[in-house]
Design a protein that fits this description.
With 345 residues, this protein is α+β, with helices and mostly antiparallel strands. The chain is 39% helix and 18% strand. It has helices spanning 2-18, 22-33, 38-44, 54-83, 106-119, 134-137, 177-186, 227-242, 295-300, 317-325, 331-334, 338-341, and strands at 124-125, 131-133, 170-172, 191-200, 212-222, 248-252, 258-267, 284-293, 309-316. Helix 1 packs parallel to helix 4 and helix 5 packs across helix 10 (317-325). Bound molecules: zinc ion (ZN). The site of zinc ion has 7 residues, from loops.
Length: 345
């Protein structure tokens, strides 16, 4: 029995020291000291040996058991230390891999910059859904029933929702102005808010037109607001966004939902007004139509046009971004081509 125990101890020590990982060590421990382990099994054989030898053998078994158990603990600590060691071929002077980082799309960046500029002037930011009804897209905005923009040539009507009343016919919003009326209906005058968002037109794309593009509306409705104040405000906003003084001019223009209507042009930022291919040698770029909300639009919002007036502009975000970076093809911004977009990070 004594020899058996001695060889068990030596064998145990060798196996514990040979364990290379913690799970391996755990397995060795189980095979020695577990329920079916060799030491445990030996203890069960105690009954077979003569009574007078039992105390000595019992002590011996306990010593073997304690020794092996202590050795397992020591080996476990050793393995833990070894696992956290840095391997010899690790070179801490090699430069690390730079983490992948995203960036804002230049159009979204422009949108945020405008938000900041308008917010600093007390405007609220309004958001609405991409799908709207014929009622909100056209009726409220004084579009005559036979206006060509209502036809599928320009507007994307939703399949199975393109018939019925003006409330039932649904489309992708062709402009933001329709939902601006929704804002007017659900808030109390006077108003001062901006409404950024994507709009959709079924048209052929070219360097300056896309099927989906961003608009940015700003609307003030109040009892007393002059054109001059509006022009100064736009000039201030653009100067803030471009970080330098920007000249603007107003020309008359026609849109069904404003009366009178105008176009606001900004001085071409690519050539500084001298004339270039981007501004078609005019020195000015059309960036936003606008005007005073048409009396019928104010009525649709539940306001008395004799009491209220206002100022409305619809900023072409894409056009503004083209100006900011001197890019002459709007489609590049929507291409999703990272080689192009990563330049603006
Ligand atoms: Zn130019």
């Amino acid at each position: 029995m004594k020899e058996k125990l001695e060889s068990l101890l030596q064998d145990g020590i060798a196996r514990i020291n040979a364990a290379k990982t913690e799970p391996e060590l755990q397995e060795v421990k189980g095979s020695l000291l577990g329920k079916q382990g060799s030491v445990t099994l030996l203890m069960k054989e105690m009954g077979k040996i003569p009574a007078e030898e039992r105390p000595v053998v019992g002590q011996l078994i306990n010593r073997v058991k304690n020794e092996l158990s202590a050795l397992v603990d020591t080996r476990r600590e050793e393995l833990k230390l070894k696992a956290s060691e840095v391997s010899e071929d690790f070179d801490c002077t090699v430069p690390g891999l730079p983490p992948m980082s995203g960036g804002l799309h230049p159009i979204i960046q422009m949108c945020y910059d405008l938000n900041d500029a308008f917010r600093s002037m007390g405007f609220e930011i309004f958001e609405s859904t991409d799908i709207t009804s014929e009622h909100y897209a056209f009726d409220n905005l004084n579009f005559p029933p036979n206006h060509p923009a209502r036809e599928s040539m320009d507007t994307y009507w939703l399949k199975d929702h393109d018939k019925g009343t003006a409330w039932e016919k649904l489309c992708l919003r062709p402009h933001l102005t329709g939902d601006s009326v929704r804002y007017l209906q659900t808030h109390k005058a006077p108003y001062r808010f901006v409404y950024p968002g994507r709009v959709y037109r079924n048209e052929t794309t070219d360097a300056r037109h896309e099927r989906a593009f961003y608009q940015y509306e700003a609307l003030i409705v109040d009892k007393d607001f002059t054109f001059t104040a509006g022009k100064v405000m736009i000039q201030a906003i653009l100067s803030k966004v471009f970080g330098r003084h920007v000249n603007v001019r107003m020309r008359s223009g026609f849109f069904p939902f404003v009366e009178p209507g105008f176009e606001i042009d900004m001085e071409c930022q690519v050539c500084g007004g001298k004339g270039c291919s981007v501004c078609k040698n005019v020195g000015w770029i059309e960036v936003m139509p606008g005007g005073t909300p048409h009396p019928n639009v104010l009525r649709a919002a539940g306001l008395d046009p004799d009491e209220y007036t206002g100022f409305y502009v619809n900023i072409g975000l894409d056009r503004l971004v083209m100006m900011r970076y001197g890019v002459d093809d709007v489609r590049l911004f929507h291409s999703g081509d990272l080689r192009f977009l990563e330049q603006f990070r």
